Structure to design on (1240 residues):
């Protein structure tokens, strides 16, 4: 994998647009102290090289009535490449937005959002219970979100 | 808390822009089958009401050399409102992007990204070890990311 | 599901009769400050709508020699809808009076009362051991009951 | 403690009224095959001796919007009679209806009902977190109730 | 099961002989203040009724080079009466002197004495590993014996 | 520590008397094929050297109403020689007959017999709860005894 | 197994050469105060008897880019001599340098060194996941090495 | 930290001498196909640069009667840099040869060798029990060593 070398100008641009994707080019140019055309060129290049993977609208989960949040730990059965197929299956479940394969006594950490307990039970937990690759799950209901920052943080 | 009632047009717009914040208004109008001015009006209103909380640029973590990902479970000491002050402290640590207070045998699930083990040790773990509100932590190194979708999913 | 809207009079009546099902209508009427016929009408309505599900006699378990109380945590095997059939089977065991399907590292919490250890062993534990849907159980003998209030509490 | 010896007639009466406290005396007399005066006498005696501890109205929790059910395991700190004072304190929390001191790796099993997550957090969990007698709690959210029979079962 | 009622004289006799099976009858008679013939009669009766189950010589385990002591927790597989057959099998293993079926997260506690690690490995652990009724074992090597009193204690 | 070397004759004698302390000398002599005086001499010597530590009467626990058996795992607090003083304290509790300091995640395994739950609660568990050297206990009630052989086994 | 009896001279020699295999014979002779020929003879004899098992070059793992160290706990499935074949298989995996079969709740402790996470995932973890003898693994990433002394220490 | 770049010749030399520190230079030269002077020069350079950290004699632990091997998991108390001082203290205990600070639910993995249980108890466990920085330890006695290769493995 080729990784593009980012210079100071790139990083300054990213730092501005990371949590404000619609920040005007002129103002970026002013703050970074490079011509506007350079800002435009750099952004295009970073899009092309895969440094910038997209621009997202952050919708308030509560406005969508998605306030039944869970973090589920999943233990896969051992044997026959179950882990990889399970990682993919979990990723495609409705409501699921994070699937991490981790080292330690559990195998996957899954983050998901649902409308309420019935939505969670029917569309998530009952599906997990019937997946043959799973040995155990343990679901932690989220009581309070202290931070959820949907972008990489550049200090 | 007042929650704005979203109608079908709102939801269709959100569904389009959630993972493409720069999608042209004309094309949205065409797809949702409403005038372009309606699209613009609805978006403005959703921004004002807090349904749309922002527009983010999703930067590839690997491009920033942030590929030492960890998920840390934290157990707080009991007593004296430690939980709330701890939730806030954890949220302000460099590298940390998710802090969830959960029900069950652990209290917080913390998601964070670092450059490498040294970065993780010095800027995160050593700080946790010295926080008096913490009883125990258990860090799971992420071996593989199957899914990380930094926006609310609207089906 | 239609849920009947309860008003203040309903709630005041329920609060009185919840732990004294035979409390005289006259005295309820006096305390709630409505005519006796209203009390009678409201109670009938709540019975019909399913708000009041029944009237129970609370018999002292010790008088029935039922003082071997246990709380058993049950972990179901994963796969093939085992959970639902197990929940039903557990509910029908003699001595069992509470069966809850819970989130976390265990699946069911079962509360039961027996005459003594032999009764518990023969009529409960040995049956559990032979249920194919069960992966593990862990029984906690109750050493002391601090509270057991067999009705919903209305503050 | 003196324990009243129950005979067959007593048990038959209890079996009828345990889940129907308002069952008519005449019909009990008919079914148990004793005079109505005997039924009345026996019930009075069992009330006086403490065999019958009360008559309860079973109100549907859902009608009262009490459908956030939890089962919380509590571990007390060791030392200085903490257990007994803790058992009493837990029993007096709003929403709590069952408190059992159990043998094994946990000390108390607490059953409680709340309106929703906020009610649970503010009126229960935050109070527990600040009790000095508690070392740890682990809350299991109830996903489904398979059985909850608020009276002693006489077979 | 018929259980013989023990009186004060019986208990006083048992208290003397429990840890000195060869204590002279005369001296027992003197201490208990009953005729020697009564002592002899009582002992005979208790032998016959099964109150006294035998007289044992307590041999110092270290003198027999049996100083590799272990306490092994055993978890049985669920299903098909495995527990009872396993309890019997464990009881017949060489070196094993205590086998208890217990409530909680483990099923059996097994106490055993061996000459050394090789003896333990070959004659005990390897046999356990190959028993199909066993799901897991966990062996705790005894580091120090604070008390081991091979008789029932009468206070 | 000097350890007496046991020969074949010693071992044969021990094997006979280990579970029958009153077996006649003549019969031992006959079976071991040595003169009766040799048997007497060998036994005296083994008593003097500490190989034979005593003769016990095995009283049936059920006859003494001691059928509430528990196995309690104890975790000591770390620091200041707590372990050794705790081992001694546990050994002196009424009802306790076995106290083992073990390697692994628990520190002590304690075996004890009580008359019933109240006896166990008052004379054992409540004392443990108030010992400052203890961090945690976990009590397993014995449901069935498969083997309890109160003497060293010589094969 | 015959074990050679080591005297003081042997031990003194071993103590010198244990962490300096190329220490000159003359200087050893001088320090131990025996003729050089004795040193040479003793070393030869210890090599022949298996006391000295070899001479190793300790290469700095970091210089070989082997700084992704892990300690993996492995739980074997029970039954059919799985343990022994598993112990051998684990020993032959690339990167693995320590395999210990231990008593307690885990069966094997495995120590291994890899170039990075990808090397670890592909050449180690994925192989473990597909071994039918394994029930569970739990990998602990080493954050810091405080001591690693690759020779037996003679005080 | 400067890290010397190793070429193919260096690696081939290391591969030969890693488990035979006294392998003759002539034979290395022959096998690697470079002049003997190059071999000598390369080895000197790797010694100077810290690639080669020493030459060790691998003494058979059994010959030194060091066959009571343990792997101890240590949990440090949280707060006040306890971890770092504890890591250093553990490293200096007699018998200890490996001390790893690890991520997960335990903090340190300690490997050590002792003569027997008494040696282990007195010189290791009792010292740990009295270290104020330690919250818990859990010692696993090694039952069998499948592999222990005291050098970095170059494939
Ligand atoms: Mg894992
Ligand atoms: Mg929690
Ligand atoms: Mg569950
Ligand atoms: Mg307890
Ligand atoms: Mg059990
Ligand atoms: Mg221990
Ligand atoms: Mg093991
Ligand atoms: Mg750690």
């Amino acid at each position: 994998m080729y990784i593009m070398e980012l210079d100071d100008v790139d990083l300054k641009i990213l730092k501005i647009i990371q949590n404000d994707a619609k920040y005007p080019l002129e103002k970026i140019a002013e703050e970074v102290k490079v011509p506007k055309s350079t800002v435009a060129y750099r952004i295009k290049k970073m899009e092309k090289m895969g440094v910038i993977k997209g621009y997202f609208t952050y919708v308030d989960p509560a406005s969508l009535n998605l306030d039944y949040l869970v973090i589920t730990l999943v233990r896969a059965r051992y044997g026959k490449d179950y882990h990889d197929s399970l990682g993919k299956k979990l990723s495609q479940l409705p409501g699921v937005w994070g699937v991490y394969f981790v080292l330690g006594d559990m195998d996957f950490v899954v983050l998901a959002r649902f409308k309420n307990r019935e939505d969670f039970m029917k569309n998530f937990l009952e599906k997990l219970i019937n997946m043959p690759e799973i040995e155990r799950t343990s679901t932690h209901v989220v009581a309070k979100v202290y931070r959820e920052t949907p972008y990489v943080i550049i200090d």
Summary: The first helix of chain H runs from residue 8 to 17. Chains H and D do not touch (no CB pair under 8 Å). Chain H has a mean pLDDT of 90. Residues B 102-104, 106-107 surround magnesium ion (ligand 2) (CB under 6 Å).
